[in-house]
Amino acid sequence: MPLELCLQVAFTGSTDTGKIILELAAKSNLKPVTLELGGKSPFIICEDADVDKAVELAHFALFFNQGQCCCAGSRTFVHERVYDEFIEKAKARALRRVVGDPFRKGVEQGPQIDTEQFEKVLRYIRAGIESNATLECGGDRLGTKGYFVQPTVFSNVMDDMLIAKDEIFGPVQSILKFKDIDEVIRRANNTRYGLAAGVFTKSVETANTLTRALRAGTVWVNCFDVFDAAIPFGGYKMSGIGREKGIYSLHNYLQVKAVVTPLKNPAWL
To answer: Sorted alphabetically, which keywords does the UniProt record give (predicted)?
Structure first.
């Protein structure tokens, strides 16, 4: 159906494309638009975390679906007290990741979706190296055929680096160090995106503080990428408008009408 004939548009994709759709909707019949767009989700590993479990969950949060996931935990914030241990174990886990034909048993990671995305991921990896982030493992294509990228881990990542700011949409884990809760809240929220976030801690108080402070549409505590048809999903800021799933999704397709009529000699007056 031509866009100008639609009564409502729901779009999932990149932020740049979402902007174009919103503009076209305004220029046509001013139709409502809901957008589920990009993200640069923080995954926060607190000092009380079980490091082995945190490494595995952070690995899944980033590398799932070759990193091609809008809510991927692509900024891994790790408390300084467990940072060094986390780095070594995150590197070891990435090196164990099996890359190859995704239809074969035991393979964890397939190719990127196409040439454009493959080249984009490699450009971001080069940008990380050039900005003096520490390349712990990976950093190149795998093999000579197909769009396979080595599982890549960067440590000593700074907030102003491209790999910490832009949505890479690929198997590139950026690990950043933090000292305290107030600092990580400020840094985690210092992004144009706000789709999702993850928190790994044994403390209910810490979890409550972070879930309330993080400006993201979904915050997972001691888990990641957990979805349900009843749980609303959508983002803050440049990560979109509106919510999918749950009763909130129905609001996107409804309008309220007020009907007013005069009543002559109403009985209750």
So the answer is: Oxidoreductase
Helix count and strand count (H, E) for the chain:
8, 10
Is 221 strand, coil or helix?
strand
Token pair listed for 256: 């309220």
**Whole-number Å distance between alpha carbons of 60 and 185:** 22
Tokens of 6: 């639609």
Q: Would you say the pTM of this structure is higher than 0.85?
A: yes
CA–CA distance, 181 with 81 (Å, rounded to integer): 13
CA–CA distance, 166 with 87 (Å, rounded to integer):
22
> Which DSSP letter does residue 70 get?
T
Which of 41-45, 95-99, 265-269 shows the lowest per-residue confidence on average (mean pLDDT)?
Answer: 265-269
Over residues 102-143, the pLDDT tens digits come to 999 999 999 999 999 999 999 999 999 999 999 999 999 999
Biggest CA pair distance of the chain: 86
Q: Which domains occur in the chain, in start order?
A: 42-221 (3.40.309.10)
How many angstroms separate the CA atoms of 40 and 207, rounded?
Answer: 20
23, 36, 80, 108: which is the annotated catalytic residue? 36
What is the CB-side half-sphere exposure of residue 162 using CA atoms within 13 A? 15
Catalytic residue check, 36 = yes
- For residue 239, give the amino acid letter: S
User: DSSP 3-state assignment of 89?
Assistant: helix
**E-assigned strands of the chain?**
9-12, 33-36, 42-45, 75-79, 134-137, 152-155, 172-178, 196-200, 218-221, 240-241
